[in-house]
Amino acid sequence: MRKRFLLPLLTLSGLYLWNASWLADAPETPERLLISHRSVHQTYHRQNLTAETCTAERIYPPQHAFIENTLPSMKAAFEAGADVVELDVHPTTDGLFAVMHDWTLDCRTDGSGVTRTHDMATLKKLDVGYGYTADGGKSFPLRGRGVGMMPSLRDVFERFPEGRFLVNFKSRDAKEGLQLAGMLAANPQWRDRVLAVYGGDEPVVEAKRQIADLPGYGKKGAMKCLGLYAALGWSGYVPAECRDTLVPVPANFAPWLWGWPNRFQARMREAGSRIILLGPASLDDPGSTGIDSLDQLDLIPPDFSGYVWTNRIETIGPALRVSLPSQP
User: Fold this and answer.
1) In DSSP terms, which residues pair with 90 in a beta bridge?
2) Which of 33, 87, 127, 271 has the highest Cβ tally under 10 A?
3) Would you say residue 15 lies in a domain?
4) Are 206 and 235 in contact (CB under 8 A)?
5) Could you tell me the CATH number of the domain that includes residue 144?
6) What range does the domain containing 248 cover?
7) Which intervals hold domain GP-PDE (predicted)?
8) How many whole angstroms separate alpha carbon 34 and alpha carbon 141?
């Protein structure tokens, strides 16, 4: 009878020890790097979000005048402590990339139509603060403040020669990955500006194929990485989708990953990958939640080494530098 239970007990004990976080070596000097999502921007309530929701129409009362994806907001993000600024791109009809989140112009600007069906000169005439309201349209506090402020990706790289950026492809058109590769090939001094790419799987795959040593992840690949690891990581197996890339991890899903945090981190390092710690995700809100409030700093493990995603760099940047003394 004892032997009958001894083998399963030894197996479970071995499985536990093989995946024990406390037995994994923690980084001697944890390096916590901040990714500022959309730079300093107007945040909004996330209840009942859909792909068609105009988020500019549901912002909180503004506490500052910065507008997402503009050069002033990026400057403010870096000054607040961002190591990387996330930005969104759309190709223009004249062969450039416009830095703009939305697929269409109607929500946030005084323009209309699909963003990518315009040339850059036309987009630069728009007011990117036109549509923001915190009171259901009674007032528009940023209207007139964003005229001419939609930058091209070229503008961004020229303005921040030492900055680093996470580039979000908003479509599934592989040609965008090819276009980015051509842009960097023609301007090799900008290659270090691009930390990584993410978004649509097809342009991400094409950009990684064309640009040497470029990390990147698409939505499907990221989900497959975490799903396969959650199912099979007990064995030490690291899926191909988790290798040589960035691995986005929602904070509330992290405890389900074998060996979280230290053993998981060690396995990702050995696979050539770094982790992006996101905020808690849910079925109702699977989007770009981040570590956005001071009480969420507890979601960052003491020995975490990787990227921390935030929508509130102006709050989290200064607080994180103070609250985590091991940060260099």
Assistant:
1) 98
2) 87
3) no
4) no
5) 3.20.20.190
6) 29-323
7) 48-320
8) 29
